[in-house]
């Protein structure tokens, strides 16, 4: 690999100092002059007609400037996940306020008042007359004959049937295995609760301050909904206190904008934690039944999957999300024939939406738990079974027809098995005491951008060098805590040969920064990072041309050194960047500025193999993850420490997915009371040591070979943990989360089946 | 009620309803937004401040409980001076990603080091058990606290 100066070191996130001093201003810290506080009244019923809303007492309260519901707000339907006008798969089925409440947490009314206390008091004074309708709480119930329709047109939001390759004729020596895996709704649990500010000023401009992953999408949805010109809706991205997909759709922006427009006051809308859990988006609950056929060597011959995705009350991004579930498996495994049928289904439950990994954690959890069952039946080491079927560099993904690029998953798995001591740990003597250890492995694959799903993808950036040699990047960056601002600085620093601290980046502001779709689809490094490099390269070329004029020497005789352009044959003779920028401005009146639109042409896979060790208490059913190893195919680390940090955070999220996190509802569709009190996140004492090893090979078109990190990191985690749990107990747990109750039930089932004795015979040959 | 207390070394006296939470005293009444609110029920630790040397969730403390007492928030760690060792170690170890949990994490860590300048890794993890981080997986945070303890100056560092 090329020796690099700036890329690959460890850097703090760009605003670390403001974060450790408390100086950074998040959305909830922002105060606009004359700002009002808004609060939402959410439906207590999973399904009900909102027959009347009596707001007279609330409106009479001193300090209240407005109370809004479906009775005095537009009923124009919109889709919260539309990024670009005319985007396909966007079903417009949501309104600002519900005339029919479709889940516990649906927006029924909003109060705008001078302060929070008055708004809360006003909410209590609103009297709503609901006519309850039958709740429909599971996708299965929603699809049943005679089910109550949740929207006109029934409960099926979207359906697809993807078939890739040709089914092989059946053979007598093959093994067919069927597994059904169920995954649950998760809360993103970004520590910052959802917040949005909006102000409609006298010039007719609506300004929105929001911790969003995509300001141009906010503009699209809000302007279309409220009938405003795109140039009159300014969306400013403010610091994001964690997102993980939770702030990629436009949940609070439309309603906050409406409240500002209607009251003529600056408005801030903040959700509390309980509201964040029910009334934003969740990872969709999915059920996938997977059938594979393998030959006696474990080679996959046929894969068929049937997925039902619970979209919740509104379609949001669920059609696309469901479809994406069918586009993940073939990034990971070769299958001569792959058929995936999927359905996204309305239920009267919290709305599903984008969540870190976008279908990959759901699909991979199913595939990887399933493959362990196949390995057990074949008496084959699970690592060996995977190695026989994983993709290789240069493979074509049949789902998109595009190359998977330098896909290094085999290397991840092999090196990980070695580092983890897989062979020794997997073939250990099975424990029979109260505490039992098990080990599990899982692989995952993911994307680098939208290409293949979208027909084109680009990013526009402007880079300017000042007269002192400092550099300003003007781009629609959406930093969400993953260090994208720092990464852009590192890339530009490398390309130009200047210190990263002399580069300034700004964040997205639709009035001031050029178009970029936003922080979606693991595209920041691969697409925006490559764009930053290309823009810097163009600026460098301009610097050489300017130096050529100033020195009166042909450009070919010059070379670029760190921070300067010098004469190739005469080291020491040349101009610093600052001298060039000053000189060319004085001499020719030229500015040192370039605007570059980078068009991405590829979409390789990013990969991870992960290994977990768990300890299960068979008396209590409690599972503790005691050791964890993640191998990351990153192409090239831009900011090494940040790559490792993102991986460790992703493992925290994946362990929660496997063991303890769930947006659980009772038989009336009501969530558990409280916020985090009843939503369990893995804390510091419960986190294992997570070792992260990088595979760097620099074989793709990202900046210096870099590929995506943030999403792939969490894709295989839950499956690795569940596989370790099943390894410890000999169980076949396939329903997430594996709570103590479920673990004890699985143990009891195993005991009653008397299968424990046969367990020791399950292990076949192993490999490292 | 008349609330008189010390915040970051400064005497403050304000009139607030007795039911006001400490976090609202700070954020709303005093305009100090360095302390963050994450769950409003003492589960996430984002709002942690130090009250007379002990870490507390400021969303669970009411105004009368701080009357006459001493509160330290994250902006009081360094004041106008240079960053404390603990803050610098958080930056150096990459213990900060989105940064929303950071003020609370720092205050829990600071409270630990006030009482135990040389904690074990387990003790650090237990001291941070009430502070949720969704970004880092905790490793970098724990390492930062360990390193700050090793540097051994937090004990006598600026209050």
Can you put this structure into words, describing what you see?
The complex is a heterodimer of chains A (about 775) and B (about 160). In chain A, about 25% of the residues lie in helices and about 25% in strands. With about 775 residues, chain A is α+β, with helices and mostly antiparallel strands. In chain A, the strands form seven sheets. In chain A, strands 3-5-1-12-9-10-11 form a seven-stranded mixed beta sheet, sandwiched between helices. Mean pLDDT of chain A is about 95; it is low at about 755-760 and about 765-768. Chain B is of the alpha+beta class. The radius of gyration of chain B is 15 Å and the shape is globular. The two termini of chain B are about 30 Å apart. The mean pLDDT of chain B is about 95. Classes of the chains: A alpha+beta (about 775), B alpha+beta (about 160).
Measured by DSSP, the beta-strand proportion of chain A falls in 25-35%
Provide the helix percentage of chain A: 25-40%
Number of domains of chain A: 3
Give average pLDDT of chain B, whole number: 95
Keywords:
heterodimer, A: 768 residues, alpha+beta, Aldehyde Oxidoreductase, domain 3, Aldehyde Oxidoreductase, domain 4, seven-stranded mixed sheet, 18 helices, disordered C terminus, B: 159 residues, Ubiquitin-like (UB roll), 2 domains, five-stranded mixed sheet, 36% helix
Write the layout of secondary structure elements.
The complex is a heterodimer of chains A (768) and B (159).
Chain A lengths: L15 H6 L14 E7 L5 E7 L1 H5 L3 E6 L30 E2 L5 E7 L2 H10 L1 E6 L6 H5 L12 E10 L9 E9 L11 E6 L5 E5 L4 H12 L6 E5 L15 H11 L3 E4 L2 H7 L5 E10 L5 E13 L5 H8 L11 E10 L13 H19 L3 H6 L8 E2 L4 E2 L5 H12 L1 H5 L8 E12 L11 E8 L5 E7 L6 H13 L6 E5 L16 H28 L6 E4 L2 E4 L6 E3 H12 L4 E7 L6 E12 L5 E13 L4 H20 L30 E7 L20 H13 L10 H14 L15
Parallel strand pairs in A: 1-12, 10-11, 14-15, 20-21, 27-28
Antiparallel strand pairs in A: 1-5, 2-4, 2-6, 3-5, 7-15, 8-13, 9-10, 9-12, 13-14, 16-17, 18-26, 19-20, 19-25, 22-23, 23-24, 26-27
Helix pairs in contact in A: 5-6, 9-17, 13-14, 14-15, 16-17
Chain B lengths: L1 E6 L2 E6 L6 H8 L18 E4 L2 E4 L5 H4 L3 E3 L2 H4 L6 H8 L9 H14 L5 H7 L11 H13 L8
Parallel strand pairs in B: 1-5
Antiparallel strand pairs in B: 1-2, 3-4, 3-5
Helix pairs in contact in B: 4-7
